[in-house]
Each structure stands twice: as C-alpha cells, then as structure tokens.
Amino acid sequence: MNAIASSAPSVNATNGPLEFLSFTLGKEEYGISIQKVQELRGYDTVTRIANTPEFVKGVVNLRGIIVPIVDMRIKFSLGSPTYDQFTVVVILNVAGRVVGMVVDSVSDVITLTPEEIRPAPDMNSAMASDYLVGLGTIGERMLILIDIDKLMSSAEMGLADPSLA
Q1: Which one of 59, 69, 119, 158 is most buried, by most CB atoms within 10 A?
Q2: Handedness of CA 96, 98, 102, 105 (dihedral sign)
Q3: In CATH, which superfamily holds the domain spanning 3-150?
Q4: Gene3D superfamilies annotated for this entry (predicted)?
Q5: Does pTM surpass 0.70?
C-alpha cells in the first residue's frame, strides 16, 4: 500500500471540517494544516550555513530561537525563486521543532469537509507518494494538501526528529 492510500483515510476519518493555510508556489496552490502554523513573516535576510542542501536558505534568529529556513520552490524544483513584497515565511511548529518555509504568497485559511478532500493520484513523484494528504476541492479551485510533518521530518530534509512527527 502506498503512502497516499494509507494517509488519505486518516484525513477522511475525521468527523469535522479541517482548516488549511493556503499558499502559492508558482502557479499551484497548496495547503497545510493550520494547526502547524505558528506565525507568518515577510521574507528577510537569512544567514547561510555551509554544506546545507540548496533548498535550506539558511537560518534566522526568531526571538532567540535559531530557525532553519526552507525555500519550498527550490525543494519542489519549481523554478528559480524570486523574493518580493508578496514572499512569505510561514513559521511552523513541526515535530517539536520550529522551521520556516518560504512560499511565493499566502492566500487564506480554507475550511474543508472530509468530502471535499480527495486522494491524490499516484504520479510516481517523491512528493506525491510521501508527502501528500490529498487534493482539496472547492468548486473549480484545487488545493494540493501537504503533510508538512512528514515532509519536514523526512531524512532528506533533516530538520526535525521523525520519531516526534
């Protein structure tokens, strides 16, 4: 059984609606559980750390906590990132660790009922098979729902302890 098949029912097993923070990367719209979001910040200069993967932009000091900053456009190979007044850093609390995620822009908080969340198709991509919860559908709008705990706790990211996810 693939990861989508095993993770999608757990979302649909929830009785009530779920809230997702929607954000854009390129032309696509994504969503993560609002419960993981600590705060939203504008993009600011980061301190680069040597020998880190390209998608780890560096770290920032957030009120005394050193926070790694991950550029999701680079992580998902969605072209060269541009940083402007719309660029947002979503500060997450994932697996007991504070992590920043750079996205092109943040849209809004969307409430989805279990019926509005469909299993993601199996497309043999690393993201689809391991980190997708499903697809949220609101009319003609589609939201790619990411399991941010699994993504940030994955061995390739190395940012959070997977045993705490």
Answers
A1: 69
A2: positive
A3: CheA-289, Domain 4 (2.40.50.180)
A4: CheA-289, Domain 4 (2.40.50.180), SH3 Domains (2.30.30.40)
A5: yes
